[in-house]
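Hi C.,

You asked whether I'd gotten around to modeling the 244-residue construct. I have! Everything is below, sequence then structure, no commentary in between.
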Amino acid sequence: MAHNRSGIINLSAKYLIWDFDGTLGYREGRSWAMVLSEVLDQQMPGHPYTADQLAPHLRTGFPWHMPEQPHTHIANADQWWDAMAPVFVAAFDALGVGVAQATRLAGHVRPIYTNPQRFRLFEDTLPTLDVLSACGWTHVILSNHVPEFDDIAVALGLTSRMAAVFNSAWLGYEKPHPQIFRQVLDVLDGCGPKWMIGDNFLADIRGAEAMGLPAILVRKPNADARYFAPDLTQVGAIIENATT
């Protein structure tokens, strides 16, 4: 999956590189334990299990849990989800439902998670993007996400505001791996100023800064962050103050 699904890059533009999950938007029932709990609600009505019982079994196994390991061998969305199936099976099986039932349940995770109607934008997302666009900034997304994120972004009205969408599932690397930032910077090579904005200090901020890219932490404060904005409305002022 070594392609970026990018749009048209304007070499004379200046770019803001946005994380998605926790920065621009989120999925209702944000944790994967909640997603698997939704599967149980749908497939086993009246079940006695809770998301808290599932959570300990979903803390490892996702690509972003192992960002040091490339997954460039995965060639399509089906393969991506097939690679995740053992994680889901193990989590369901830990409840005591049995391997056969756990395997059946795991097959329902993908359509439930990827339902675009379950995703939301923060209230400050679109207004901030539009204000910054009016100030001459061009936007792209760089997200650790599932292969279907492109469809989710379209449903949320984000794609029309983005020059490109870079998705780890298609690029074969997860933030903060240097190569995922390098692929974005290669596409934007020769463009004007570039900033990263995200809510994850290690994946978004440290990852970007390691590549020489200035970065603004949003929503989740960290004392080690050079730049922090409690919400997106302050991003523009931080950039302006840093560059004047």
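If it helps when you're writing up: Residues 8 and 163 are 6 Å apart (CA to CA).

Thanks,
B.
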